[in-house]
């Protein structure tokens, strides 16, 4: 059962990208963990992360169906709004915030089926088979959704680059939203 706790960050990350809201993501993760603990005896072994993320995804869609999630609230993000001890220059902070904003906007604009496959594969590092199992779709569907998601993300990033002061977007677009680019953005809090 302690194996499930190891994947708390991954569960929250997926829930956050699905709900677009920190509070709702916390609720989804809490409910998913309750379900996971209840059904842990039926867990067949294997990869606990993929099993847990499947429960998180299903919990989100169940809540969405029953509650129709309200409009996202703006929440305080300590990393984004707080002061870091090794504070970078003002220019670096502005560029990081711009890069984060642009990537977050581009990811949020993706349809859910593309966003969830990108988050699971590129940010959470699941294999194609694990993503297929988590989403309950054939592996070919995962590959085509991932390809379409990357292409659309790249196009969206190039479109957003036209905005003034978005020089940092080129780096994301040039990499086509690959694992390294997305992971580096995730590391700065995207």
Question: Would you mind describing this structure in some detail?
Answer:
The chain has two domains: 2-67, Rna Polymerase Sigma Factor, Chain: A (Orthogonal Bundle), CATH 1.10.1740.10; 79-187, Arc Repressor Mutant, subunit A (Orthogonal Bundle), CATH 1.10.10. The radius of gyration is 17 Å and the shape is globular. Helix 2 packs parallel to helix 4 and helix 7 packs across helix 9. It contains eleven helices and no strands. It has helices spanning 2-5, 8-19, 22-38, 48-67, 78-81, 90-109, 112-123, 128-135, 139-161, 169-174, 179-187. With 190 residues, it is an all-alpha fold.
Q: What is the class of the largest domain in the CATH system?
A: Mainly Alpha
- How many whole angstroms does the radius of gyration measure? 17 Å
> How far apart are the first and last residues' alpha carbons, in Å?
29 Å
By secondary-structure content and strand pairing, the structural class works out as mainly alpha
Q: Write down the overall geometry.
A: globular
The fold-level CATH name of the largest domain is: Arc Repressor Mutant, subunit A
Count of separate DSSP helical elements: 11
| Main sheet summary | none
Mean pLDDT, to the nearest integer, reads: 78
Could you spell the SSE succession in H and E letters? HHHHHHHHHHH
Corresponding CATH superfamily of the largest domain = Winged helix-like DNA-binding domain superfamily/Winged helix DNA-binding domain
């Amino acid at each position: 059962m302690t194996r499930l706790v190891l994947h708390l960050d991954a569960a929250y990350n997926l829930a956050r990208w699905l709900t677009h809201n920190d509070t709702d993501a916390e609720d989804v993760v809490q409910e998913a963990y309750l379900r996971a603990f209840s059904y842990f005896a039926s867990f067949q072994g294997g990869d606990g992360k993929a099993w847990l993320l499947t429960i998180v995804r299903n919990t989100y869609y169940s809540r969405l169906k029953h509650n129709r999630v309200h409009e996202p609230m703006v929440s305080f993000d300590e990393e984004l709004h707080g002061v870091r001890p090794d504070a970078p220059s003002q220019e670096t902070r502005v560029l990081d915030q711009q890069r984060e904003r642009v990537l977050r906007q581009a990811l949020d604009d993706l349809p859910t089926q593309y966003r969830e496959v990108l988050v699971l594969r590129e940010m959470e590092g699941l294999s194609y088979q694990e993503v297929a199992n988590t989403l309950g779709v054939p592996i070919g569907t995962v590959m085509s959704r991932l390809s379409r998601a990357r292409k659309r993300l790249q196009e969206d990033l190039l479109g957003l680059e036209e905005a003034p002061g978005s020089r940092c977007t080129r780096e994301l677009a040039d990499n086509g939203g690959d694992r390294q680019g997305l992971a580096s953005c995730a590391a700065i809090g995207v």
